[in-house]
Specification:
The complex is a heterotetramer of chains A (418), B (384), C (201) and D (169). Chain A has 418 residues and is mainly α. Helices cover 68% and strands 0% of the residues of chain A. The chains are: A mainly alpha (418), B alpha+beta (384), C alpha/beta (201), D mainly alpha (169).
Chain lengths: 418, 384, 201, 169
Amino acid sequence: MLDYITSYLSDTVKVTPGQVGNVFWIVVYIFIVFGGVSVAVIAMNWLERKALAHFQIRLGPMRVGPHGLLQPIADALKLFTKEDIIPSAADKLVFWIAPLIILCASFTTYIVVPFGPTHAITDLNIGILFMLGVSSLSVLGVVMAGWASNSHYPLIGALRSSAQMVSYEIAMGLAVVSAVLMTSLNAAGTGTLSMIGIVRAQQAQHVWFLFKFFPLGLIAFVIFAIAMIAETNRAPFDLPEAESELTAGFHTEYSGLRWSLFMLGEYAAMIAVSSIAVTLWLGGWMRPFPNALTGDTWDAVFSLFPGLTFLGLAAICFVGVARMPKHPYFRVQTIGLAGFGAVLGLIGLVLFAPPVRDRIQDIYWFVAKVGVFMYLYIWYRATFPRYRFDQLMKVGWKVLLPIALGVLIATAVWGVLV
Amino acid sequence: MTDATKYLSHLELGEPDKTFLDSNELIINMGPQHPATHGVLRVILKLDGEKVLGTECVIGYLHRGVEKIAEHRTYTMFNPYVDRMDYVAAVSNGLGYCEAVEKLLNIEAPPRANYIRVILTELNRLASHQLWLGTHALDIGAMTPLFYTFRDREEILKIFEKYCGARLTTHAFRIGGCLYETYDGFERDVKKFIDSAPSKIDEYEELLTTNRIWVERTKGVGTISAKDCIALGVTGPVLRASGVKWDLRKAQPYAAYRDFDFEIPIGESGDTYDRYLVRMQEMRQSLRILEQAVGKIPEGPIMAKVPKVMKPPVGEIYHSIEAPKGELGYFIVSDGSTQPYRVRVRPPSFVNLQALDIMVRGQLVADVIAVIGTLDIVLGEVDR
Amino acid sequence: MPEETKTPSPPSGGEPKPAAEAPHRAAAPPKPAGPAPEPWNSSMIGRLKEQYGSGIDPLTYLGQNYMVVDSSLIPELLQVLRDQEEFDYCVDVTALHYPEREKQFDVVWILYSHPRNERIRVKTMIADGEVIPSCVSVWATANWLEREVYDMFGIRFEGHPDLKRILLPDGWKGHPLRKDYGIIQQDNEWVQINLGIESGQ
Amino acid sequence: MTPVATTFFFYFLAAVTVISGLLVITQRNAVHSALALILSLLGQAALYLMLYAPFVAGVQIILYAGGIMVLFLFVIMLVSIEQQQKEEQFNKLWVVGVLAAVALGGLFVGVYVKGKALFSGPVLPFSEPSNTQQIAVLLYGNYMFAFEIASLLLLVAIIGAVVMAKKRI
């Protein structure tokens, strides 16, 4: 099977992801990507609490570690050591499996995420289809969790989420198809479903699909951006886990480790769908303005960004150190923050080294673009009230779906005419 | 006064369905432990999918027998208890009780006390509305207003704390006036608050008033007509949002409200959005009252001549004030002894909560949450 | 916190003193005989008297008007008050218990008229165990208010759509606002069965 | 570079598919049956992958495992499970069942025997990267008419379902 997977690597790429035929590199990449995603989820957890807190004029976590940097770890420890409660009337088997399904579904999608032309576990030639398909499996986990809890609120949450996710998948799929359609506008007239192929198509056509056939690409992107929030059950579409209505929706009865698996899966899914959006419309790993600001000088300037970012973060840390109260009580925290800043600064310096710089650039730009989406997720959550279920369905079926269909047809027509 | 004569026919509540457990129907217990029922309210919902077919409120989880306690305390001793009913508007509760007993004793609080009472009560109205706004918005899913309102409510609570030492259950007034003279800088603090508050209210409105999702979630939700409101005895902002211009501060002025110029904001359609707008306007009107009051607190005593041992003559009195939630009435019967023979509290939340059923029939589960929020109930007052 | 007046300071340490202590010199002798209720006359009373005769005893006390009516008049009079006299808003329904009286209970309706901006009370006396017609059909708001009166006093309202306890649990025995119900009294049996507390406290 | 692993995986996946297929009809709890069915469908998707038909595999996952099964679960969840569990698992039509199974088995054997002559040896029909394109050419080229008929039928079914489900339009 591994042979089989490796045989699917695109032959157009010179250094193929995972180094064709080399099982070792695939395994290494799997560990790197899954480890990286887990770290990203932890970071996202901290960032969300912190950013949300600042939106809401409070400080957020401040106790565990300097500025609460160790809070996610403390939370994880707490969740691991918490009593594991299974309701007596629950269907134990299904109750067990549900969070695992969500987790597997959201992590499996990373198999095809292209962090760079050479930085991907593999490159299926049905990549985007695979991603949509596998991420749609997470709804099974939600439904199973809601049913297995044998309680009204989770059941309603599960009903809501299954209806919601299935509905928004359609608009999402149509938006994706219109982006895929754009890949076929080359000399050969053949498109691709491969994630790497899609980015390469944007490279070849010298445009992010966001701006292709303006405003068609933009509309498709916006549809996707809305649908993906609904897909991941985030505010303002967080009805399945609407806190004020259904207490916690489908995971009301879950606690401890299994609850944290849900959270892990949810955040991983958020990052996954964001990476689809980045790949399809925002040029994936490509740096900004690849066609306008060309030349070696610009390349060199943009290649400094990763290092500069880390140096900037380090600088923020040191500002924090300087502003720490000068009291023995805070000594440990101050030293910790300074150490953290120093590590960030060191990483930044390492990233300036030319060979590292060139290898890391793709990943940096990809992650930076995904990061923007992550910030948007938090922003939406701080700003918007929650939709009601019928309104949500109305938006999905009566607004997004027709527009997505229209965009698809318009893209096809435009593509044929041009 | 609007022409209310046309609302005189009574309300058809309809028979509860006999087939309460049909196969398509789902009975769901909302509360008493539920994040959106504002305490320990339990609502039994009969649902068809997500549509509400009927509700039944089960209350009493917070029943402390306040009325029974009153019969075993002297008039003065009972005063702090009333703060524990509507604990987010404790000052209003105290005002109502003190004025009722004053009426029964046939004394009157001096003008300075009345002004202090008005200032504190209006501040309390603001605090109550802010708390309502924050929790209501949180129920509908907007997290952020909660923290904004709590930030500003804090300023009010600080003034209370400086004035009487307590923040929530203030026990600010005494029978016959106020116990405490205003502290140094009281007027400055209030003035500072008045100056900063309008921009803060603008901030809330910016987040919500034109927010599409907010409007969609609240417009046409939980609509109740003026006729139904009056038939169900609903008072306060809920009544005013249905278009009845009735506010006890204007209709039967008490304390020093006669001296101030303010408007009664009313709504048109009586839906959740109108109630939201009415309360936002009310907050601005409260600021207007405060502005007029704070500059010209008259000099003089703050306590009327009150007998040391209060023994009101045999008789009974009903006095009501416009609490933030509606008409808060006290019906006090004296038998000539030091303890009231009977104290009946007419709680606005209790009566308003009755309207929940007709407001949510035919709407969705999510609307129940919105309507419970918009009724602005405090379970301490519902259950007493 | 500086205070320049004779008033006591805010409760920084000790308990707040009873308010009545503040104006010491104002300790007037208690007035056992206060103002007595006086007859109340108005055009409305005239009309009602014409219709119901001696069943109505209109009084006024401290500027507040009320009428003591015979319990046989009850649903009809309230209906008339709502329909003809525009008392469209029933503020409250409550009761009083006088155990030493023959007719133990006073049932009180507090009414308000929006068009007239007028508040009156209607009062009637009934004996223990006697039923009184419900006025839910007159004012819908009476539903919960009557349930509360039933809960607290045990007065049964005839024709109420759903007369059951409202604040106390359904199986509770006793009606706490009756004067013979002690302040710390409770339904020990209920507490033991439902809360599992043996001592009953 | 095919040999061992591929054979192993084939039999592994086949076993998963068949066993979970059996579980579908033997489980007492309808939700467990549905879950087994999902597993069976996923096994089939993997088998498609082994047959170098990635597009079909992807569609299998999206449509069957992701879409249709959710709707299945949706319906099953709302049905009272307790009652079903008390009911008899199999009804008494043993004879008909056996006959149907024998007929189906005979058909399979027939196809297998005859098919050996028709398809000689495992051949890769299309080059992999263009597999998706080839399907498109077949669907929208050669079998255009059949495809359109099928989609029209589905449309009729959808409208019919809406009309039946909605009491008032």
